[in-house]
Write a structure and sequence with these properties.
Layout (H helix, E strand, L loop, with lengths): L3 H25 L2 H11 L13 H30 L3
Helix pairs in contact: 1-3
């Protein structure tokens, strides 16, 4: 049986961590070169420009993505149990 809370915490933490890393890349000035590199590897021009780092925006990004991941983890755990615990 999947614990809904733990599934939410795992997915929320993972998605929040990815966005924390992105925020650090923006703050360090490495996000634009990284985005340009990734687009270039796919034979594309990067249509996006990374904005200047703002701490409030970074905190909002990490918190909101954590919450969305937490809810998604709970929903996925509920769906998993609904369709797999029929015995």
């Amino acid at each position: 049986m999947i614990n809904h809370n733990k599934a939410g915490l795992v997915l929320g933490s993972f998605i929040g961590l990815i966005h924390l890393i992105w925020s650090i890349l923006v703050a360090a000035g490495w996000a634009q070169p990284l985005a340009d590199f990734i687009y270039g590897m796919h034979f594309l021009n990067n249509p996006f420009h990374v904005k200047q780092f703002e701490i409030v925006t970074a905190v909002e990004l990490v918190v909101i993505t954590f919450v969305v991941g937490y809810v998604a983890g709970n929903v996925l755990a509920l769906l998993w149990q609904k369709f797999h615990d029929k015995k």
